[in-house]
Amino acid sequence: MNQLRKSTLPSDRARSLVPLIVADIYELAGQLRRNAEAIAQPLGQSQARWHVLSAASADPKTVPQIARRLGVGRQNVQRIADLLVEERLASFEPNPDHRTSPYFILTGEGRATLQRLMESARAYHHELAVGLSEAELTVLQRGLRRVCDVLDRREKSLAPEA
Length: 162
Fold this sequence. Notes:
Elements: H1 12-40, H2 47-55, E1 61-62, H3 63-70, H4 74-86, E2 90-93, E3 103-106, H5 108-130, H6 134-158
Antiparallel strand pairs: 1-3, 2-3
Helix pairs in contact: 1-5, 3-4
């Protein structure tokens, strides 16, 4: 059990803000998904496909790793990954650490598609940035990152030890 000093306990006001922040984040996530869908659709893509392409764009990742990163079900990512492979936007490559879980790797065309999606999103990102100062955006990004870090630590502390 964690031993918290009295000084580390959140105030009543802080505790009452958490559910409001969670509700705002859910609302924001919905707005971002709808806007991403509107950006992706003219390019023949969807926000879900865009997210999978983006999650796979850096280091080699397996479908389960992409699903965990995106916080969605493995089966949903697998379905999208299979379609992207069928369309030659990605491929499955051998994973030396896990024979039954190959790496999902973007092809040149997949990277070009992701680049077109990112270029299409630039005006949208500019529009969002115009509404907030650089200082506000910096504080917001740091705050959201800290919330993610706290939740990551919580998940790790609750995970059964292997």
